[in-house]
Amino acid sequence: MNSHLSAIATILHDGHYHDGVTLGKKLGITRAAVCKFIKKLKDYGINIHSVKQKGYALLEPFVLLDRMAIQQQLKNNDLDIDIFESLPSTNDYLKSLHGLVRPRICLAEQQTQGKGRLNRYWHSPFGQNIYFSYSYFLEKDIGELAGLSLVVGLAIIHLLKQYQLPACIKWPNDVLYHGQKLSGNLIEVEAKTHDSCRIIIGIGINVNMLEARMDEMLEWASLRAITKQYVDRNKMCALLIKILLDYLKKFAAHGWSVFMNEWQSVDFLINKIITLQCGQQMFTGRMKGINRLGNLLLEVDHGIIKGFSSGDTSIVKQTRSHPIDQQITLQ
């Protein structure tokens, strides 16, 4: 993150006008350099008002991510946190760091190639949301990671409760508020030895975003859109790190099964008729819950229940004549 860009955003956060000459003196740069940074923020979509002989002012709250602010909330100055102005992908950045021996966090103000499951595009406007990745080591074989993405979803649900937001999870990893997507996660795994692995947990949370291009996110929500209040992302990141680490430690010690009761209380799909696409096959039936492996259980035909470890789900709009026992169809 460019220190001058961050410093200008911090100064303007008070809502008052600041002229270019004064800003330059405070930062030890020229007025022309100040103008370039202001233009950069405007190009990112930040609402800055410019008035001759008065200077620049933010027309709405805006705070950039700050490593020191996050570490102070955590009371842990040793935590490795990288913050970038822009990255193609926070997950890809951490994957590129070979030889890490301790956990590391990456945050970006913007992702240009952010993605979710199935390589779907994740809308990532500058300075509005949380684009977060965590490189973490687990003393587990890859085969013991069943249910991990569900556990991460539960950690996000717990985070949102701190903001009085009741959310639920659409298996496997979509966090929804009244059916609109608020957050998601993507987990990538690297085997290190037979009984240990490195996991990279990518989390996106719509925090202060108020608009998105309709071709990018059709059904979305953000904390600010819901609560009508600007959210301090530094405080939220610190809280996310604390909660996520607690959930990961519990998963490392006990696995997925100890989270099943917690899952049942936030399962968006339970007892709904859904379609599930798994590879080239499409299944329709009633969702009957999650098993001890984190697999979705689908009643597909007269009491026959199938388990699925992966797939893309959607709710079927029911009609009076809609049969529950659909047959398997090929795409």
Q: What are the key terms here?
A:
single chain, 331 residues, alpha+beta, Arc Repressor Mutant, subunit A, BirA Bifunctional Protein, domain 2, SH3 type barrels, seven-stranded mixed beta sheet
Structural features, described:
The structure is a single chain. The chain has 331 residues and is of the alpha+beta class. It folds into 3 domains: 3-58, Winged helix-like DNA-binding domain superfamily/Winged helix DNA-binding domain (Arc Repressor Mutant, subunit A), CATH 1.10.10; 67-264, BirA Bifunctional Protein, domain 2 (2-Layer Sandwich), CATH 3.30.930; 273-330, SH3 type barrels, CATH 2.30.30. Helices cover 27% and strands 27% of the residues. The chain has 9 helices and 15 strands. It has helices at residues 3-12, 20-27, 31-43, 67-74, 90-95, 148-161, 223-227, 233-254, 260-264; strands spanning 48-51, 55-58, 81-84, 104-108, 130-138, 168-170, 174-177, 180-193, 196-205, 273-278, 281-290, 296-301, 304-308, 312-315, 329-330. The strands form 3 sheets. Strands 3-4-5-9-8-7-6 form a 7-stranded mixed beta sheet. A hairpin with a 5-residue loop joins strand 11 (281-290) and strand 12. The chain starts with a helix and ends with a strand.
